[in-house]
Amino acid sequence: MGNGKFGGHFYPGLYIFFYGLYQATLISKAVIVSDSSGYVTYSPKNKKRCAKLKISYGGWLKIVTGSLLAFYVVFCLDDGMVLINKGMPPRFMYPKEWQHLTMFILLALDGCADVISKNVLRQRCVLLERGATVLSFYVLLLLLVSHVKESSGVELQVHSLLILVVFLLMLVLTAELWAPEMFHLRMIETFLFLMMGSWLIQAAFILFRPVSGFLWEDGDISDIMFVTTFFCWHVMINALCMLGIYGVSSFWHRCYSPSLRLMGSKEALYQESSSGTFYKLLQEAEQQDKDNQAPLLSKISPCDRA
Question: Which residues cross the membrane (predicted)?
């Protein structure tokens, strides 16, 4: 049971943290390209190839990760995921494990929404993708609030800080439904994903595998205070992590990307008239990670970049 609870925090945290790192690289590329007065577009040949091989890698990753974590929760219990025991009167069994299972199923369903939007529908529906993610976090917040009903001391403090991050992330994702192109919201979202992932990893070690080998004491106020102190360290470290990613991306762009030259194009102006500049840059940066062909840059007006 201890190993199962450790994995139920560590592996989801690892996935969310790397997802946050991936989003941070996309945002850094978009900001750098925008600052260099350029807009990333792709050649017609590349667009045709992408149209044929249009795969929602992020969606399939969510489906696979959610499914694997769900199987892990089911099989980490010796007697399996029993819902109700056979005693009289019958009682529900393993409430926290069932909540973990529900969270991982939500992740897989969120991936299904991405795949449907990008691979099944004739036209991509960003609102469906973002709406599914927001709904998942609303349900996740409800599960976490009830998850700590029987917790106390160190465990309660750890999960309370996690609930704070999830609540803020839910608010940001909700705001993005109406303002998907806002740069500041995407930055905050990425930072909160990093916080959620790194804190889940930390929580796994605090609650189940302390580095010192000794369990944290619920009755020791210093232990509870240091939980909050560690959380504040995570805030600073993740902020520095995002700054470091931007620095590395900027260095690579200046030193190892000589092919990125500005070229005038009316197509970029037409694309900018239909959506926000930064949101388009994020989409292009995401596409660039999937294609290894050299991109072309088109010039945009200063008012569009503003």
Answer: 12-34, 55-75, 98-116, 128-148, 160-179, 191-212, 224-248
- Among candidate residues 286, 179, 273, the one with its CA nearest the CA of residue 300: 273
Q: Decide: helix, strand or coil at residue 219.
A: coil
Contact 195, 234 (CB under 8 A): yes
C-beta of residue 132 within 8 angstroms of C-beta of residue 109: yes
pLDDT one-digit tens code per residue, 266-288: 333 334 433 455 556 666 666 66
Q: How far apart are CA 297 and CA 86, in angstroms?
A: 67
- Residue 89 CA, chain-centre distance (Å), reads 42
Helices 183-207, 277-290: crossing angle, 10 deg rounding: 50
Domain range holding 153?
2-305
Which segments within 92-168 are labelled E, that is strand? none
Rounded to two decimals, the pTM is 0.74
What backbone torsions phi and psi does residue 215 show, to the nearest 5 degrees?
-65, 145
Scanning the structure block, which residue is given the tokens 């596409």?
A: 287
Output 143-149 pairs: Cβ under 8 A, ≥24 positions apart.
143/99, 143/102, 143/103, 146/99, 147/96, 147/99
The DSSP bridge pattern shows strands 39-41 and 296-298 to be: antiparallel
The count of domains in the chain is 1
